[in-house]
Amino acid sequence: MPQAQTRILILRTFKSGESNLILHGLNTGGAKMSFIARGAMASRKRFSGGLLEPTHHVLIHYQIPKTTHEDSPLHPLLEVELLNGFEKLRHQYERVEMGLSLVKLMAQLAQPGVDDSPELFNLLGNALTAAEESDRLPILQLHFEVRVLHALGVLKTVERFSQFLKYSLKDHHRVILNKEELTFLHGETKILLLQYINGLSETFNSL
Known about the structure:
With 207 residues, the protein is of the alpha+beta class. It contains five helices and five strands. Strands 1-2-3-5-4 form a five-stranded mixed β-barrel. The longest helix has 28 residues, at 179-206. It is globular. The two termini are 29 Å apart.
């Protein structure tokens, strides 16, 4: 089988069978890709040191499977190189939870084969970077959700979210909201995200 490589942000991993590991990642074009690391659970030599962990930014070498009708084929994993482990996220429980919530959301939003949204990859990477140092994690999470909704074309009423669109994620500390405003806008984004995710499910089920 031909081989290729790509950079991804790892979104999710889970065991398959006795020793295989399935890996979902977001590539630089904003598409979700799936990989299988055969024997990864039986031998840690190839993928040692917690290399295949959600949030990690890695360079993946993989095989391109034969033509398939699947929307998200499993690409056999050959080698992985760690580019950024976002280690500071693991220094505090709140940061770990933040990082995992970011990749979990992207795992729900990103679609296989849709690689025309590089902004999604950049937003996730920038959010993980900001979460390593941020002392305003709730604002950062809301900022990330707003920017993702905007990138997806879902955010129709932008006035109330203007601060989030004005500043980059690294400047999320410049967003000024009181507690009531933060709670209200969090509720707004949750509704929009849920509607979008439900819409994706309905589209998938109708195919």
